Amino acid sequence: MAGDWIKMRGNLWDDPRIASLCDATDQPEAMIIGGLYWLWAMADQHTEDGTLPGLTLKAIDRKTGVPGLGAALADIDWLQVVEGGVMVPRFDEHNGASAKRRCQDAKRKAGVRKESASDADKKRKPAGAREREELKPSHTPPADDSDPAGADNPDAPVEMTLEWQPDQKALKAYAARAGVPLDAFTPEAVSPFVLHHEPRGQVRTLREWTADLVRWVQRDRVNANRVVPLSRARASPGKQELNHEDKSWAIDGEGV
Fold first, then answer.
1. Facing residues of 157 across strands?
2. What is each CA distance from 168 to 15, 149, 157, 175, 190, in whole angstroms?
3. Low-confidence residues in the chain, pLDDT < 50
4. How many Cβ atoms sit within 10 Å of the Cβ of residue 97?
5. What pLDDT sits at residue 2?
6. Which residues pair with 81 in a beta bridge?
7. Residue 70 confidence (pLDDT)
8. Angstrom distance (rounded) from CA 3 to CA 255
9. Residue 217, exposed/middle/buried by CB under 10 A (0-12, 13-18, 19+)?
10. What angle do CA 50, 53, 54 make, to 5 degrees?
11. What is the pLDDT of residue 138?
12. By the 8 A CB rule, do 112 and 15 touch?
C-alpha cells in the first residue's frame, strides 16, 4: 500500500478537461471529480505503476455512478485501455510512494524557506529605519564630557532654568541689531523673562533664548515709553481733565 492520501490539484474544478468530461457524461463537476477521486485513490491502493489488471471501462462507470466516464477519460488520455485492464498514465508523477516522497520533500523545503524568510524579516530593520533614527530630533542635549549640559554651546538645545544666563556674544550682537543698550539687561530685566518661560518646559538653543530675551527687553522698553504719568494729567486740573478712555498706558503685546 503506497499511502493513505492522494495528490489532487486545487484548481482541478476549473480545469477545461473537467468541463469536457461533464459535457461527455452530462454530469456536474461534483460527480466527475468524485469519480476521479475514487479512481485515483483505488489506483494508489492497488498499484505501484498505475496499471490496474481486470478493471474495465464499464466497471469504472458502475463504481462511480457516472455512465460513460471510463470512455470519456480514455478520450482525453487520462485513462488508457491496455491488455487485460486499464492504466492511469503518468501515475508515478502524481501518486505512488516516490511521488509522495517528492511532494513531502518539496513541502518541507518550502516550510524551511518560509521560516528562514520570517526570521530574516524579524531581524531586518525596515527600509529607512536607520535614516529615520538619525534624523529624528532630540530634545536632549548631546553628551559631551567637557560640557555635559551644553551650557557653553549657543546651538545646543536646552530648557529654560532659573539659573539661566544669556550668551554674551549673541546678546551683544542681537542687542546692537535691536538698538537696545547692553546696560538694559539688568537682573531686574532678565528675571521676568526667566520666570515666564521656566515653567513651560520649552526647549530652544541658547542663541534662540538670547534673541528672545532681546525682543522681550526691547518690547518692555517700548511699552514703558508709552505710559502716561498721572502727575502730568493732574498738573493743570483746570486746563486738562483725566481721560478715562485713554488706553495709551496699556502694555500691548504678550511675552515671547
1. 205
2. 85, 17, 17, 10, 13
3. 1-2, 98, 131, 133-134, 136-150, 233, 254-256
4. 13
5. 43
6. 86
7. 93
8. 86
9. buried
10. 135
11. 46
12. no
How many of the other CB atoms lie within 10 Å of CB of 206?
A: 21
Amino acid at 188: E
pLDDT attached to residue 194: 93
> In whole angstroms, how large is the CA radius of gyration of the chain?
47
Q: Please report the DSSP string for the chain in residue order.
A: ---S-----TTGGG-HHHHHHHHHHT--HHHHHHHHHHHHHHHHHH-SSSEEET--HHHHHHHHT-TTHHHHHHHTTSSEEETTEEE-TTHHHHSHHHHHHHHHHHHHHHHHHHHHHHHHHHHSPPTTHHHHHHHS--SSPPP-TT-TT-TT-TTSEEE--TT----HHHHHHHHHHHT--GGG--HHHHHHHHHHHGGGT-EEEHHHHHHHHHHHHHHHHHHHHT---HHHHHS-TTT----TT--TTSPPS---
The cell 502524481 sits on which residue? 94
Query: Which residue reads 542681537 in cell numbers?
Result: 174
User: Distance of CA 238 to CAs 137, 241, 245, Å?
Assistant: 65, 7, 19
Contacts 24+ apart (CB under 8 A), 20-23: 20/72, 20/76, 21/69, 21/72, 21/73, 21/76
Tracing cell 530630533 back to the chain, one arrives at 137
- All 3 cell numbers of residue 66? 457516472
The answer to whether the beta carbons of residues 221 and 180 sit under 8 Å apart is yes
Pair 7, 95: CB distance under 8 Å: yes
